[in-house]
Amino acid sequence: MDILKQNIQFLKGVGPKTAERLIKLNISTPLDLLYHFPRDYDDRRRIKKINQLVAGDKVTIIGEIIGQGRLIKNRRRLTVLQFALKDDTGRIFITFFNMPYLRNQLKAGSKIMVNGEAKRGLNGFEMINPTYSQIDTDEDVKINRIVPIYPATEGLKQNQLLAMQSYVLELSSNNIEDHIPEELRKKNRLCNLDFALKHIHFPLNEKQLKVSKYRLVFDEFFLLQLGLAGIKKNIARFKNGIPLKKKGYLQLLDALPFKLTSSQMRTLNEILEDIQRPTPMNRLVQGDVGSGKTIIAILALYICVLNGYQGVMMAPTEILAEQHYQSLTQLLSQFNIRVGLLIGSLTKQQKTTLLKDIANGSVDIVVGTHAIIQEAVDFKQLALAITDEQHRFGVRQRTALVNKGVDPHLLVMTATPIPRTLALILYGDLDISIIDELPPGRKDIKTVEIKEDKKGRAYDFVKKQLDEGRQAYIVCPLVEESEAIEAHSATETAEELKNTVFTNYRVGLLHGKMKAREKEAVMTSFKNGEIDILVSTTVIEVGVNVPNATIMLIENSERYGLAQLHQLRGRVGRGSHQSYCILVHDCKSEIAKERVKIMVETNNGFVISEKDLALRGPGEFFGIRQHGLPELKIADIFKHVKILKAVEKQVAELLREDPDLTLEKYPILKKALEEKFEQFYEEVGFS
Ligand SMILES: Nc1ncnc2c1ncn2[C@@H]1O[C@H](COP(=O)(O)OP(=O)(O)OP(=O)(O)O)[C@@H](O)[C@H]1O
């Protein structure tokens, strides 16, 4: 195997220049090259002449480019490159979307091979976005089989990659240890690794390709899930937690004006189980907007304080920190618990005093924004940290909060529920609790869409609700370029609405550029019913809770993503009155129309996030991950859900057999896993 791990520069036929180019593709060893999978295949067993084409055929055509390609740019910055290709029987039009640079590569007179679906267009046959390869010699055409097409980079030709790949495959043959043992391969109907690597590059038929792909996708998910399970074990094994006693919380439950829902109760019990252990809790609470996560957090903090320790709750915005602070004080001051609010707008003097009180333990619970808490606070004895998913921190950041070598219990809250299988990958290192019901009596929020030019009707409807004593949010257009412009536009909108449509109502304004004090004052007035309509930017997106507000009108809703729309809509429907969400839009793109349609169709956060992820694609989805987990090169969490499930089953089985994941029975698997997670382990400081 070592020969496969040497520097690729020493491979036959690879010089320093080529090696440099390969590095750009993240290939520095022959083994990396083996794992540089084709992005597509040219099925050259189906080469056809143009006059043999039938509409719908998936075929390969070899031809010569006629003339310069025609490049069309439209207003939405979409580019269309079009040219004609001829062979000795006819011609076909080829169109590439958004690949203007191809114009320089595909020159008049050059010979290329395109592979794709032939369609009948206005001017005869056409092919849209086919895969293509340049033909340099007649040899290229003769290969009569399925030829891989690799992600390439400048200066590296497909043919070169192909040649290197076959050479490496020769080297690797019989040199590859299979880290999935035969017993597990048999059970999961997997071919061996050697076969899979060979045939993912050079399959002789579809079946070989399918079998190989299945094995490699399985492989990636398998190692990832095992690795994540290992991380969980590691965290548990090596860290010191503070076992807390489960006491006193019934008192607080009794004092609440409502009974917990059964999912809230289940979640609370899961947390209680965790915090009684000597290892730190690492738990994610997933709950749809308005499902009542805050009270669970408060209960956990309360128990922590009753045990004589401090707790901290971090919020993504000051408004939310303020709101949590109020809820906590309201509920906990009766029990003589001291809560501190740590936000940027404190005076120097206030901040110094607060920090001192936190350090000497006279403040029990600290609420604040992440930035502040992470940078400067020294706790006397912190036992519980609560954060949200975007700001969830890795082990390294967590140490910033840790005193005396003890790790606090960690609770991560998210209002973006995602399907369980996906959560297992995204949050594989956390235990997961799900609050999957809303408090009783909640009505579905009625969502309607309305075109920009019919907005007047929407405003009339808002007035009717206000006249019944309810309140409304009007969210201003999202301006991505700058918060300042956004603030400006919100201010203008508020002025205009106040002076034209809503002259008889009290209109308030909220945006990110306001001082914390001003924001707080506006939020308080809105909460107290002194403002009828709150014109706001998306600063109200997360967490804000004003049950009497029943209308959420979102201007230019086409500019928002689904998750954000759902979050915004979640600001209403938080009490017993019927609530409404009005999406004012001027949709042009299909994807924006689709988003609006989904919002109108469902209130269910799980369904919405699933669709959202599908619309956005896995790339962005995985962008959320902050740590250096191994990337997925061939597996796709959307396309390969079935395989993911099979893997999940297998991993669970393995863990049942070998709960400490020693993998003693499978030393090669153990080694592969360690290699794969090396970087991650280093980052989080596991030995
Ligand atoms: N079991 C319950 N019965 C009745 N009302 C409840 C219950 N649990 C929570 N609530 C109330 O429901 C409202 C929403 O709860 P909370 O603010 O905790 O939601 P959330 O899950 O944090 O939502 P978001 O993610 O939107 O911030 C609050 O007014 C809260 O007091």
From TrEMBL:
<keyword id="KW-0547">Nucleotide-binding</keyword>
<keyword id="KW-0378">Hydrolase</keyword>
<dbReference type="InterPro" id="IPR033454">
    <property type="entry name" value="RecG_wedge"/>
</dbReference>
<comment type="function">
    <text>Plays a critical role in recombination and DNA repair. Helps process Holliday junction intermediates to mature products by catalyzing branch migration. Has replication fork regression activity, unwinds stalled or blocked replication forks to make a HJ that can be resolved. Has a DNA unwinding activity characteristic of a DNA helicase with 3'-5' polarity.</text>
</comment>
<dbReference type="InterPro" id="IPR011545">
    <property type="entry name" value="DEAD/DEAH_box_helicase_dom"/>
</dbReference>
<dbReference type="Pfam" id="PF00271">
    <property type="entry name" value="Helicase_C"/>
</dbReference>
<dbReference type="GO" id="GO:0005524">
    <property type="term" value="F:ATP binding"/>
</dbReference>
<keyword id="KW-0233">DNA recombination</keyword>
<dbReference type="GO" id="GO:0016787">
    <property type="term" value="F:hydrolase activity"/>
</dbReference>
<dbReference type="Pfam" id="PF00270">
    <property type="entry name" value="DEAD"/>
</dbReference>
<dbReference type="InterPro" id="IPR047112">
    <property type="entry name" value="RecG/Mfd"/>
</dbReference>
<dbReference type="InterPro" id="IPR045562">
    <property type="entry name" value="RecG_dom3_C"/>
</dbReference>
<keyword id="KW-0227">DNA damage</keyword>
<dbReference type="GO" id="GO:0006281">
    <property type="term" value="P:DNA repair"/>
</dbReference>
<dbReference type="InterPro" id="IPR012340">
    <property type="entry name" value="NA-bd_OB-fold"/>
</dbReference>
<dbReference type="GO" id="GO:0003677">
    <property type="term" value="F:DNA binding"/>
</dbReference>
<keyword id="KW-0238">DNA-binding</keyword>
<comment type="similarity">
    <text>Belongs to the helicase family. RecG subfamily.</text>
</comment>
<dbReference type="GO" id="GO:0006310">
    <property type="term" value="P:DNA recombination"/>
</dbReference>
<keyword id="KW-0234">DNA repair</keyword>
<dbReference type="Pfam" id="PF19833">
    <property type="entry name" value="RecG_dom3_C"/>
</dbReference>
<dbReference type="InterPro" id="IPR004609">
    <property type="entry name" value="ATP-dep_DNA_helicase_RecG"/>
</dbReference>
<feature type="domain" description="Helicase C-terminal">
    <location>
        <begin position="454"/>
        <end position="614"/>
    </location>
</feature>
<dbReference type="InterPro" id="IPR001650">
    <property type="entry name" value="Helicase_C-like"/>
</dbReference>
<keyword id="KW-0413">Isomerase</keyword>
<dbReference type="InterPro" id="IPR014001">
    <property type="entry name" value="Helicase_ATP-bd"/>
</dbReference>
<dbReference type="Pfam" id="PF17191">
    <property type="entry name" value="RecG_wedge"/>
</dbReference>
<keyword id="KW-0067">ATP-binding</keyword>
<feature type="domain" description="Helicase ATP-binding">
    <location>
        <begin position="274"/>
        <end position="435"/>
    </location>
</feature>
<protein>
    <recommendedName>
        <fullName>ATP-dependent DNA helicase RecG</fullName>
        <ecNumber>5.6.2.4</ecNumber>
    </recommendedName>
</protein>
<dbReference type="InterPro" id="IPR027417">
    <property type="entry name" value="P-loop_NTPase"/>
</dbReference>
<keyword id="KW-0347">Helicase</keyword>
<dbReference type="GO" id="GO:0043138">
    <property type="term" value="F:3'-5' DNA helicase activity"/>
</dbReference>
